[in-house]
Amino acid sequence: LSVQAALIGLGNMGAAMADRALDAGHDLAVYNRSPEPARRFAERGAKVCASLAEAAAHGGIVLTMLANDAALRAVAHGPDSLIASLPPAGLHVVMGTHSVEVVRELAASHAAAGQFLVSAPVLGRPEAVTAGKLGIVVAGPAEAVARCRPLLEAIGARIFAAGDEPGGAAGVKVANNFLLGCAIEAMGEAFALTEKLGVDRQLFYEVITAGLFAAPAYSVYGRIIADADFANPGFTARLGLKDAELALAVGSLAGVPLPSANVWRDHLLSAIARGEGELDWAVMAREQARASGLA
Amino acid sequence: LSVQAALIGLGNMGAAMADRALDAGHDLAVYNRSPEPARRFAERGAKVCASLAEAAAHGGIVLTMLANDAALRAVAHGPDSLIASLPPAGLHVVMGTHSVEVVRELAASHAAAGQFLVSAPVLGRPEAVTAGKLGIVVAGPAEAVARCRPLLEAIGARIFAAGDEPGGAAGVKVANNFLLGCAIEAMGEAFALTEKLGVDRQLFYEVITAGLFAAPAYSVYGRIIADADFANPGFTARLGLKDAELALAVGSLAGVPLPSANVWRDHLLSAIARGEGELDWAVMAREQARASGLA
Amino acid sequence: LSVQAALIGLGNMGAAMADRALDAGHDLAVYNRSPEPARRFAERGAKVCASLAEAAAHGGIVLTMLANDAALRAVAHGPDSLIASLPPAGLHVVMGTHSVEVVRELAASHAAAGQFLVSAPVLGRPEAVTAGKLGIVVAGPAEAVARCRPLLEAIGARIFAAGDEPGGAAGVKVANNFLLGCAIEAMGEAFALTEKLGVDRQLFYEVITAGLFAAPAYSVYGRIIADADFANPGFTARLGLKDAELALAVGSLAGVPLPSANVWRDHLLSAIARGEGELDWAVMAREQARASGLA
Amino acid sequence: LSVQAALIGLGNMGAAMADRALDAGHDLAVYNRSPEPARRFAERGAKVCASLAEAAAHGGIVLTMLANDAALRAVAHGPDSLIASLPPAGLHVVMGTHSVEVVRELAASHAAAGQFLVSAPVLGRPEAVTAGKLGIVVAGPAEAVARCRPLLEAIGARIFAAGDEPGGAAGVKVANNFLLGCAIEAMGEAFALTEKLGVDRQLFYEVITAGLFAAPAYSVYGRIIADADFANPGFTARLGLKDAELALAVGSLAGVPLPSANVWRDHLLSAIARGEGELDWAVMAREQARASGLA
Q: Is D293 close to A274, i.e. CB distance below 8 A?
């Protein structure tokens, strides 16, 4: 069952997703603000669009994978925009990591234009997409979800249906990143504690990843902390701070204090204030080490 | 290679450990303050001792599995005690969860008496012992560790050597429990957040345990939180508070602030203040739910 | 020395300030979005303006006392706005409580239009204005400050010169409110502690206000907490939350974690989540009481 | 009305208190573990005792002003001790800063011996005693309080009656010190914030002490922070940490989380870990400055 749709935003993640959709035989158009990343998709048979309006006209389904709320708002509103260009009953599938606030706001704007919005944030890095291991959380009106589901199944390995309220899926993504930040922070504290008691960091790494914490969050970030290898960031401290503030903002919106987020937000703020904002966000562990009189 | 030794403390954990040592053919004596739990070990060929002194004389190696620092101090010091009874070069293997402070204090007392102390806390519940999956962290003077190693290998599946400073192994155990408390707290916050956004708790449980957090800490305690099943405690809030205070005390001793421990210590204090001290310690998630206006 | 200027925003605070300026003989015009509050100033000889442009033309100095950043941005930008209407070298004196971010942003916009911005937030309630006890923190280019100083001296009792960077004065105001929130939170915790030990709340109130804490922050808010008198708000929990988020946002901008702000922000979030957002912000003490198993 | 009693513990505070009691004409005996500090009181007509037993026999009322719980327990229990030596209906007035736990424990021990305990901690430094400005919080059985009241009135300027449960008075003292720590911490955060915005520290000091925070807690400690004058400690970071842990221990006993205490306890732990334990406890502000990328 081939679906006709357009994908907007060809960063590393968006490009990997486009490849998966094309591999599965979907009729995909692509659009990127700067034209360069789109070029290679022409060779793969994808229609390369010159404007948002052209993308919106390709099947009336648009997937966006954009860097932040500002980029998403810019694409959704304005003169050459999705809301202005999508046909009646058109569908916007929001796949980036965004605030619940902007997702709700755009869902209302699309609804006012007779269109639909589905929130479908992804769990995983570009490598996970390519390896066919991506998770996708999806929420929105049931019929709209059904329309884009074949596309999501081509892109991701596992689809988690989070109900009909788009903000819910956005919130699951924010909560997942929040949990990751908490795990990194807790490891930073535990490594500092055991190091000051004379325990080798590699030994402590083995203990936790062989036991209760044998999961990627701990094996990937425990390795970075054990090796103090912050200089090759998979995700920077500055981006981590954005994730913390996204979580706290959703908490404020929903009436939920997040005391554990406060802890690592503060450590990231300190790291950035010291000029370490472009290091891996696991550098929050170094703040903990400093606060413990280490290093 | 059979080792002659005694095991003191036949609670659920100590009894399971004694069974494993006997299964492996070690010459084990047992002692328990109240005689009842020791009885069945006579049938298994174990020597059942009537006093600490008798236990200390059985091979000069004593393993203790006791509930807390006070019980350990009582067994180590005093008239009929390990320090008074162990022979020169005798060995005390401390396997319970204890403060770094008491471990260091007893190591010094044993050393003053010409004896040795090895710290060998266990990672896992009695069921893990029986299933042959227990982890053991061990630290102490190398020769002393070598003497008890065959016993530890009979009891546990994996031995983590944490150096020659006994306090280090005690600290690893405290840090491991600390990490667990942090994971439970973070889940409590994340479940409250997603629930207030209208997301089903079972769905959120699936998302996290299928992804970055596919580890026992999250699958076991995420299940309890998703089901709000606090009434069948595997470990009570009151015991959880003790673990938090153990972590904070080690942090104070070592000069390491543990801001993440503060968070869940405070939630456990509140739960206990409300009369929920005998519920499962995952009840800290209910405090978070209350602070979010849920329930 | 009479100064010709306009005051925009005739809420309780703005109106009290206008009265003081008129009392001192300044040539004051007034403007309010809804015309009603302006009416009585005509009888006092003030020019009542029908538009922002008319106000901006009255001497080229405009004081604004507005409720929040959104209101300030609306007045500064847009078709009938201060930036569009103030003459070259015109002066905008911002006296409300605003984020450092908006103050810096408007300072740049005014500068681009050849105009000046002075930040002059006030410390105190309307009653303090009337009683001639208001403090004013002022920052901006020295010549611009000098031009509005006679007006500020008419309005306030004490002028604190905070340098030539307008964001500094805005930050002092935010920091002052932050300190107040911290004092209220700390009292909430201390009252809960002593109450659970059987100490009468009035006695504890006497102890602290007779000693190290004999200051308005403690006598005013300690009284509210001791009497649990949250139903007659001088300042609501919802406004208090905005102050906390203002502080945290300035902290984020400046690279300063504010761990004490996290604590009372979270208590206010909980109070609001429970439906107590319109009570006095000292209701954060009731959250603490609840977390202590009281009430 | 002269009272016959003994005072134990002639540190700076105890000595100043003894002077006041003698000035008022009370028949005071004194005892100190090391004899030197007692000598000068002989010239003032005080009986200088050679043992606790001798002190306990002097009127059957003993005031203790000791450094910590360990010193208090040592004086109360043991062979030559207050409990062993006080006559039936004898009275022990505990005036140092102690945990609620030890006060309750000793109250029970004295009661078992047919004796009384009154808790009467002091609010102020030795200079306040000499200046006749000391506050005293007193709690215990009404008749026992009445017996020592003339002495307390000679020593202090204001007596706060906190009920008949001795633990209550101990808790008020702990809560008072807790509030002070919170005020210092909050100032540390506020000074760091305004400094990073370019505001002069002396100016910020003026703003807060002229307004809502015109109280000794802020004027004394704000001065130390504004001048970064941590090298002449009135009270060291190490002692401050003890006060934080005293507060947290009382909170744990009473079922009261103290999230604001966590914040400054952690800052003091870090300062001590860096080797600054003997600086003034306001050095917690320097930790905040470091966490903000200052200094």
A: yes
Judged by CB atoms closer than 8 Å, whether chains meet at D287 and A291 is answered as: yes
Task: Give the closest-approach CA distance of B181 to chain C in angstroms.
Answer: 19
Nearest-Cα distance to chain B for D106, in Å, is 20
Q: What's the whole-number average pLDDT of chain B? A: 96
- Which residues of chain A have a CB within 8 Å of the CB of B292? 254-257
* Chain D hits for B262, Cβ within 8 Å: 259, 262, 266
- CA-nearest residue to D270 within chain A is A291
**What pLDDT digit, counting tens, does each position of C255-280 carry?**
999 999 999 999 999 999 999 999 99
What the block records as the tokens of D213 is: 């925070």
In angstroms, rounded to a whole number, what is the distance separating the alpha carbons of residues D221 and D230? 10
The token pair at C70 is 């959104």
- Candidates D259, D270, D293; nearest CB to A291: D270
User: Cβ distance B62 to B8 under 8 Å?
Assistant: yes
Nearest residue of chain D to residue A272 (CA atoms) = D293
Q: Which residue of A has its CA nearest to D263?
A: A263
Count of H helices and E strands in chain A? 14, 9
Q: What's residue D78's pLDDT?
A: 79
Cβ–Cβ contact B234 with D under 8 A: no
Name the 3-class secondary structure at A283. helix
Choose from A185, A243, A262, A268 for mutation: most chain C CBs within 10 A. Answer: A262
State both tokens at A40: 């290679």
Q: Do B259 and D269 touch (CB under 8 A)?
A: no
Average pLDDT over residues B228-232: 97
- DSSP of D225-261: HHHT--SS-SSBHHHHHHHHHHHHHHHHHHT---HHH
What is d(CA A53, CA B111) in angstroms, rounded to the nearest whole number?
A: 81
Taking only the tens place, the pLDDT of each residue in B147-173 is: 999 999 999 999 999 999 999 999 999
D203 touches chain C (CB under 8 A): yes
Residue pLDDT tens, chain C, 295 long: 799 999 999 999 999 999 999 999 999 999 999 999 999 999 999 999 999 999 999 999 999 999 999 999 999 997 889 999 999 999 999 999 999 999 999 999 999 999 999 999 999 999 999 999 999 999 999 999 999 999 999 999 999 999 999 999 999 999 999 999 999 999 999 999 999 999 999 999 999 999 999 999 999 999 999 999 999 999 999 999 999 999 999 999 999 999 999 999 999 999 999 999 999 999 999 999 999 999 7
- What distance in Å separates the CA atoms of residue C247 and residue C176, rounded to the nearest whole number? 10
Q: Are D10 and D32 spatial neighbours (Cβ–Cβ below 8 Å)?
A: yes
Answer whether C275 touches B (CB < 8 Å): yes
**Is 0.90 exceeded by the ipTM?**
yes
Which secondary structure element, helix H or strand E, spans residue A82, and what is its range?
Answer: helix A82-85
| Number of neighbouring beta carbons within 10 Å of residue B89 | 12
CA B79 to each of CA A66, B53, B108, B116, B184: distance values in angstroms, whole numbers, following the listed order: 72, 10, 18, 19, 43
Q: Which amino acid is it at A19?
A: D
Contact A78, A53 (CB under 8 A): no
Q: Note the pLDDT tens digit of each residue in C177-200.
A: 999 999 999 999 999 999 999 999
For residue A77, what are its two tokens?
A: 């509103």
CB of D182 closer than 8 Å to CB of D153: no
Share of chain A above pLDDT 90, in %: 98
Residues 50-89 of D with CB under 8 A from B: none
Distance from CA of C197 to the nearest CA of D (A): 5
Provide long-range contacts, Cβ within 8 A and 24+ apart, for B24-32: B24/B154, B26/B2, B26/B150, B26/B151, B26/B154, B27/B2, B27/B3, B27/B58, B27/B59, B29/B5, B29/B54, B29/B55, B29/B58, B29/B59, B30/B6, B30/B55, B31/B6, B31/B7, B31/B55, B32/B8
